[in-house]
Design goal:
The protein is α/β, with parallel strands linked by helices. The protein has 10 helices and 8 strands. The two termini are 18 Å apart. The mean pLDDT is 95. The chain binds zinc ion.
Length: 261
C-alpha cells in the first residue's frame, strides 16, 4: 500500500520528533509522498529546503488566513507579488495554504481583509493553472460566495483541506472543481458528520491528509505525526465500506493526478 499525505507541515517546529525519524516511521507504513503547505511567506524558503532535502516532498506556497490576520499590508503585498514567479520552481505544485477562518477572526473588517487576500491568491492559482490548497473553518457560506463570485467556479482545481462542511455541500465543492481531503478528525470515535461527508465524496475527488502536527486523532493527544495517515485511511475505508487497500490506491492516484506527479 502507498499513501499520499496531501497536507502535512513537515517544516513545523511543533512536530513531535526530528523530521528524518518521522519520515522513516511513515515510510515504514507505506507513506511515500507529502504535500507540504507553507503558511507564512517568512517560511517559504524553509519549506522549499525541506522539499529539496527529502524524497517525495512537494510544496504549496501561500499565506494562511491566520498569518494574513497578523501581517502588515506592505508585507502581504510583497509576498503576493512574489508568489506567481515562485510557482515555476520545480518543487512547487500548488498555491496554499490559503482561505478563510471565521473561528479565529470575528471582526467583519478582518474577515473582509482575509477574503481579499484569499481572492488574490485564488486568482494567482487560476492564472497559473495550478491547484489551490484551501483552509476553511466556520466559513463555508463565505467560501461558497467567493468561489461563485470570482470566476473560480468550474475553473479551479485543488483541495478543501480537512473538509469540515456538511455532506450536503460536498456536491457544490465538487462542481466548483475541488477535491475534498479528510484527516485525523474523521478518525475520531464520534465523527458522524465527517463520516457522512466522507461517504458523499465521488471516488475521483477523495484525498487523505494528516495536517501534522495539528490534527491528533485522539482529542488532546498532542502533536500528530505523518504516520497517522494510516489510521485516517482506515477510518475513511470504514466510512465508505471499502478496503483500506482500495482507499490507499484511489487517494494516491487522485493526488498524483491533481499535482501532475
Ligand atoms: Zn495546514
Amino acid at each position: 500500500m502507498e499513501f499520499f499525505d496531501t497536507h502535512c507541515h513537515l517544516d513545523d517546529p511543533a512536530l513531535p520528533a526530528a523530521l528524518p525519524e518521522l519520515l522513516a516511521q511513515a515510510r515504514g507504513q507505506g507513506v511515500c509522498r507529502w504535500l507540504l503547505p507553507a503558511v507564512d511567506p517568512a517560511h517559504w524558503a524553509r519549506v522549499l529546503d525541506v522539499a529539496q532535502a527529502h524524497e517525495g516532498v512537494v510544496v504549496a506556497l501561500g499565506v494562511h488566513p491566520h498569518v494574513v490576520d497578523r501581517l502588515e499590508d506592505s508585507v502581504l503585498e510583497r509576498a503576493l507579488a512574489r508568489l506567481p514567479q515562485t510557482l515555476s520552481l520545480p518543487q512547487v505544485v500548488a498555491v496554499g495554504e490559503v482561505g478563510l477562518d471565521h473561528l479565529r477572526q470575528k471582526d467583519p473588517q478582518g474577515r473582509a481583509r482575509q477574503r481579499r487576500v484569499f481572492e488574490q491568491q485564488l486568482q494567482i492559482a487560476i492564472d497559473a493553472d495550478v491547484p489551490v490548497c484551501v483552509h476553511c473553518v466556520r466559513a463555508q457560506g463565505a467560501m461558497m460566495e467567493v468561489l461563485k463570485a470570482n470566476a473560480a467556479w468550474g475553473h479551479i482545481k485543488g483541495i478543501m483541506h480537512a473538509y469540515g462542511g456538511s455532506a450536503q455541500m460536498v456536491p457544490l465543492y465538487v462542481q466548483a472543481g475541488l477535491h475534498l481531503a479528510f484527516g485525523g478528525l474523521t478518525a475520531r470515535p464520534n465523527a458522524r458528520r465527517s463520516a457522512a461527508s466522507c461517504a458523499a465524496v465521488p471516488p475521483g475527488r477523495l484525498l487523505l491528509e494528516t495536517d501534522a502536527p495539528y490534527m491528533p486523532i485522539e482529542h488532546g493527544a498532542g502533536a500528530s505525526r505523518p504516520v497517522d495517515i494510516v489510521q485516517v485511511a482506515q477510518a475513511v475505508a470504514r466510512h465508505r465500506a471499502v478496503s483500506v487497500q482500495e482507499i490507499a490506491a484511489l487517494t494516491t492516484a487522485n493526488a498524483c493526478a491533481l499535482f501532475g506527479l
